[in-house]
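SAMPLE LOG
Freezer: B-3
Tube label: C17
Construct: single chain, 102 aa
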Amino acid sequence: MSAVTKTIMIIDYGMGNLASVRNALISLGGHAIISKEKKDFKTADAFILPGVGSFGQAMENIKNARMLDELNTQVLVGRKPFLGICLGMQLIAESSEEGGGA
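STRUCTURE (predicted):
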């Protein structure tokens, strides 16, 4: 019997320690890619959104990279698994009062 390898996409929006998350997944036997490409959102089986920094800047980066709609489509409509780490978990909120609001 062969195991099916799932692709976990670590979302690159310019904030966070992406390589550490990727290395941890690989050490556990997973298949992980770091990307911000629309085509990778469609082919990934699950997503991790790591992050360190401010909510406002992170949302601006995600919006400027035009990733928000595709991420929403894949996770909310397509029901693909999602894990937010630190700031990445905060980013699933609709807004934040951090730094004057975003």
